[in-house]
Amino acid sequence: MPETSDRKDDHIRIIEEEDVETGGTGFGDVELVHEALPEIHRDEIDTSTSLMGHELALPIVIESMTGGHPNTTKINRALAEAAQRTNVAMGVGSQRAGLEIDDPALLESYTVVRDVAPDAFLYGNVGAAQLLEYDVADVEQAVEMIDADAMAIHLNFLQEAVQPEGDVDARGCLAEIERVASELSVPVVVKETGNGISRETAVRLRDAGVDAIDVAGKGGTTWSGIESYRAAAVGATRQEGVGRLYRAWGVPTAVSTLEATDVHDCVVASGGVRSGLDVAKAVALGAQAGGLAKPFLGPAGQGTDAVVDLIETLALELRTAMFVTGSASVDELRSTEYVVLGRTKEYLNQRTR
């Protein structure tokens, strides 16, 4: 099995077996102001929202996780079937393996998502570093692979810096993102992979014409930590140490959400989102939706029903937050009152000096 595909299998194994979680999202410092007299019926609250022109039942995204190895087909099938049944959005992991490796079993790990989710909002995924090698036709091939409704371009340069075999040439990526955003047949989302997007970077992406930003901030799964484990396994002790040093690096998700929504009108908040209350806080901070990845991985291994069960739990948690803030709709939740405390407040104050 080629290196790119094997790496995908390694990633899933490490996430399931090792400690690859960090704290510090900032959501703990965000408090929604309680409404003691909501004057609405909880069960009549409208949790639907629009994301890039697609109507969703919930402001929830099953974040890009995997694909590119036959062992991941079961996971993506369960996630996509659940997205179809609950009408939430879903992304696939990097499609580099599907574009570069001629293997029907490997390709199925991606194509299965549209096969089982004909109506779901699905987005594809390519790396910014790969845009230096691909032309727009290659990215269109990734769109066609899953009949994608949008295409994510992921930024993962810290992860690449820790990988012994990583691609550390980041020159020219913004120009390539702008080119793809202007020419691709579907909307383009630029997403980080656990280290956040600052206001300044969000402005550059907005000016490049991207349709949405997924901040994927600090505070959830640490890809630096994952690559540290991989480096240790192959005896790359220097990269292992760098991975450990930077495992908590980045812009906290709550900060990144506030900064990105200040300059772009379509933002997904991900990175350590672990509950429907976190989703509610993300929306209150201005996001169109909240995205989760690792919490779905275990249920996906159990099957579709377990994924649906988690989504229904998240939905009830979200609906409860809306009820006790008097928010009858997602739009009303987006304008609800909140308070920012602690380290997150200090961080924001320092950033706005």
Automatic annotation (TrEMBL):
FMN binds at residues 64-66, 94, 125, 191, 221, 272-274, 293-294. It is an enzyme of class 5 (isomerase). Its EC number is 5.3.3.2. Substrate binds at residues 7-8, 94-96, 159. GO terms for molecular function: FMN binding; isopentenyl-diphosphate delta-isomerase activity; magnesium ion binding; NADPH binding; oxidoreductase activity. Its main location: cytoplasm. PANTHER family: ISOPENTENYL-DIPHOSPHATE DELTA-ISOMERASE (PTHR43665). This is Isopentenyl-diphosphate delta-isomerase.
